[in-house]
Amino acid sequence: QVQLVESGGGLVQAGGSLRLSCAGSGRTFSNYVMGWFRQAPGKEREFVASITWSGGSTAYADSVKGRFTISRDKDKNTVYLQMTSLKPEDTAVYYCKARTVLGATAYWGQGTQVTVSS
User: Fold this and answer.
1) DSSP assignment, residue 55?
2) Per residue in 22-41, pLDDT tens?
3) Cα dist. 44→4, 8, 35, 52, 108 in Å?
4) Pick from 92, 87, 91: which is nearest to 15 by CA?
């Protein structure tokens, strides 16, 4: 059974930093794309960043480019999201997603709350 467990969320002041972790278990993710999404109250879930497990290719939403960095540790089966220069509009529940490269299979974590105070 595949599980994704996020951690690292919390309350931080604007301009601060947080590092989110997504620990995967139940399989290897060699043919997967790992991603972070977020959902603010009253809004739809939106893409934040992604990384291919094998090659490490990354992509970012325009709103976080230059501030957030996604990475993965193959030995620990973990994906990270380093967030810097946080803004109040970054406040949301952050979700980890693992999907096959062709998108036929996807798994979600339970989410972790990030709150940025002004």
Assistant:
1) T
2) 999 998 898 899 999 999 99
3) 21, 22, 16, 24, 16
4) 87
